[in-house]
Amino acid sequence: MVGWLAGVLNRMLARATRDLPAERRLWVDAVRAEADQVPAPWPRLAWLAGGFWLVARESGMARKIGYWTGTAGVAAAAAWVIWLSWRTAAPADPEGATDRVRVLVGAVTLAGLPWVARGRGWFGPVADSGAARLARIGGCAAICAMGLSIVRADRQAGFNGAVGTGQLSWPREAAGLAILVAAIAVPLILRARRPRTSPETYVVILTILGMAALFVAPIQAFAVGCAAIVLAATSRRSPVTAATWTTGLIASLPTAAAACVLPFTIGKLFTAVFIVAVVAAAAGDGACAAAARLVIGTGNPDELRAARMLQGALAGAIAGAAGGLVAATLSPILGEMMVAGLVAGLAGGMAGASLAADRRARSIAAEPGGSAP
After folding, report:
1. Is the pLDDT at 98 greater than 70, yes or no?
2. Where does residue 194 rank: exposed (0-12), middle (13-18), buried (19+ CB within 10 A)?
3. Is 288 helix (H, G, I), strand (E, B) or coil?
4. Phi, psi (5° rounding) for residue 243?
5. 49-87 per-position pLDDT tens digit
6. How far is 195 from 181, CA to CA, in rounded Å?
7. How many C-beta atoms surround the C-beta of residue 8 within 10 A?
């Protein structure tokens, strides 16, 4: 086993040379060559491990290693949830088959969306910033946790149908899947056939298909929507900057705490949703102000103001959506928290970003010899 690990490290060192400058590649070759002279098995393994760690620090691979480790953990979690959906439910449980469909839809979405749109880059590869990578791994893990909570809730409820009607309708499931596939395929087809299609057209199409999917298969549509948002927002094509991700994730902590605690302390879901929306709007307002002020530039004043508005609104949306997503992992019933947090955070973000951009412009214009950016 130790010899196998040493061989793996040796091959990883060979592959890591592609990320190193030319002068460092000779050093890696020397480390690999001297490894054969180090006694096996443990001293050789320690030698190769030390060399690999130095290479990882030199080429910035530590972040990549952490990301792929998290990806492997998400894949293992998804496989475990799929196994639970097939093994723990009783054969006669009408919700058991429905749960299997829900879990499979979520797992296929997480694995399939980056592959389907790989040519356009809408859902992958992931952005270079550490905050975006953390958000993608955390968001995908939260979706797996939602699947686990659904399976456990239905298993504990028996035949009462805790997360559903207690009945399996294959026509309904097929219709829901068809709508979800259309929601993904139609924009791709339009993009390929009619590149000049306006963004408003895409918004209308996605809104109509999304509302239909929520009506026919709400949990499946919610899972697919969450996966699409997480993957698209963390891709390299995403307009979200690293600073916006950082401020948005930090500001999501109050919303997450409120969304997780209030439903159980107040006892009234609609009241808790309203309070969480208020908290999300306030947190989003603060996040957007910070994100907007971090946008700098010397270009066109209108373009700079628009960039600050965009990053501020995105920071508010991240703050609300991330906080609500944390609550949705506890119980599928709390999925409303993510919708409320996203809408309220976006609204608060847009308002706060507008104020921050205008205030920044006025402060610079007031400086001696300054002009509004």
Report:
1. yes
2. exposed
3. helix
4. -65, -35
5. 877 777 766 655 667 777 878 888 898 988 888 888 887
6. 20
7. 13
Copy the structure tokens of residue 64: 């990549």
Maximum Cα interatomic distance, the chain, rounded to a whole number of Å: 78
pLDDT surpassing 80 at residue 212: yes
Question: Mind listing the pLDDT tens digit for each residue in 306-363?
Answer: 888 888 888 888 988 998 888 888 877 777 788 888 888 888 877 777 776 666 555 5
Q: Count of CB atoms within 10 A of residue 25's CB?
A: 14
Token duo for residue 165? 């009607």
Q: Which two tokens stand for residue 135?
A: 């958000």
Which pair of tokens denotes residue 173?
């499931």
Question: In whole angstroms, what is the distance from residue 69 CA to residue 190 CA?
Answer: 36
Q: List, in order, residues 6 or more apart from 190 with CB less than 8 Å away.
A: 197, 201, 202, 205
Contact 74, 137 (CB under 8 A): yes
Burial string for 304-325 (b: 16+ CB within 10 Å, else e) reads: bbebbbbbbbbbbbbbbbbbbb
Please give the Cα distance from 135 to 77 (Å, whole number): 17
Exposure string for 327-355, b = 16+ CB within 10 A, e = fewer:
bbbbbbebbbbbbbbbbbbbbbbbbbbbe
- Residue-wise pLDDT for 258-311, tens only, equals 888 888 888 788 888 889 889 888 888 888 777 877 777 656 777 777 888 888
Which residue reads 């199409």 in tokens?
Answer: 205
Q: How far apart are CA 284 and CA 226, in angstroms?
A: 19
- Report the C-alpha gap between 141 and 265 in whole angstroms: 26
Amino acid occupying residue 183: A
- The full length of the chain comes to 373
**Buried (b) or exposed (e) across 38-57, using 16+ Cβ within 10 A?**
eeeeeebbebbeebbeebbe
Instruction: List the alpha helices (DSSP H) in the chain.
Output: 2-16, 22-35, 42-59, 61-87, 94-116, 130-157, 170-193, 199-216, 218-233, 242-266, 269-294, 301-330, 335-366
* % of the chain exceeding 90 in pLDDT: 4
Query: By the 8 A CB rule, do 30 and 41 touch?
Result: no
